[in-house]
Amino acid sequence: MPPERILVVIDGMGVGGSQRQIAHLLAGMDRSRWQPELAYFRERSFLVDALVQAGTPVHHLPKRARLDPRFLIAYAALLRRRDYALVHAFSLTAEFWTVLAARASGRHPVLIASERNQYLDKPAWYWRLKRLTLGHCAAVIANSSAGAVATAQRTGLPVSRFDTVVNGVDQVPPIAPDERDAVRRHLDVPAGRVLGLFAGRLVAQKNLDCLIAALAALAPEQRPWIALAGDGPLRGQLEQLAREAGVAADLSFLGERSDTVRLMQAADFLVLPSRFEGQSNALLEAMAAGCPVIASAVGGTPELVRDGRTGLLFAPGSVAALSACMARLCTDPTLRARLSRQAREHVAQAHAVPTLVAATTAVYERCLLRRAAGTLTRTADAGRHVAAGGPP
């Protein structure tokens, strides 16, 4: 039997969690069974370059406006020309336009949707549109049980319609002590200070106000030195907040970095105080790199981090609890070493990239078999719901 031609589609292919998982998935698929291709609308990154170099066909479909007829025509033409057996969309924007393009193309690929976060900040129209698009899909793949449950509740769909496939990560070999020291010197970490790291976007979801307040709550001699790797719209506000809290000297805003895994290898812990998460790639990568983690117990995080065993969890938004976690790791190198070892063992067993690929393609196989047998069902009756708020 010839390999099935499938398409994975996402609106942006910048460097983010979903994009890294797409790269893992496409690179790891069995080419004797699958012929995978990628389509994206904006933001090319080194992840796309690596896929192209590996021989994966990539299609850039420029979307120039919220409503772009030329984009829809081009997408429909791609579906018609390539005649995919299955299309897996990784965002609501990709799902919505895939549904329209599939109808316009006259082709009937199996459609798979995704849920990558809890998205507690989304308005009501988002969930109406999500339900509408899911009504055309044969399956929904979530990266955490919490994300599946949250989406089921907000769309009114049964949670049984969701498949949970956890994120995958490559194992990272330990860093040599002299290399670790060199990274810390390059960051200008003060001598004798414990190095904490945040890696991610500087946005409201990450609740970095809580981190700054927790740092300020510690006595100066107890404080770790925190490096923030990432950028975002709140950078100026956070820098001002750090000055007002008297901890500007205890924080370093690094901006966007392409070496976050190396920073994780050099850090004494990673902290993620988010208000909501699906399954954080930053946590997963830190655990694979042997960096102990402190995280708020939100969304899919407790599914990944076992408190006291593979990391430390604290109540979301609790400044006192986060301060206590940081103080605990700052003063207990034995605990840091134990959490590091156990976290590495856990992700190697439960979050290997081949596990991600096998679980995802198992969903594909099931849906294609059901279509061949004439028993394929969609996730909901799409005709009963009308979205408000406009297309993404």
Automatic annotation (TrEMBL):
SUPFAM superfamilies (UniProt xref): UDP-Glycosyltransferase/glycogen phosphorylase (SSF53756)
GO BP terms, alphabetized: carbohydrate derivative metabolic process
Keyword Transferase tagged: yes
Record-annotated Glycosyltransferase subfamily 4-like N-terminal domain positions: 15-170
Transmembrane intervals: none
Keyword terms of this UniProt record: Transferase
Pfam family, one: Glyco_transf_4
Chain ranges of the Glycosyl transferase family domain: 182-345
Protein name: Glycosyltransferase
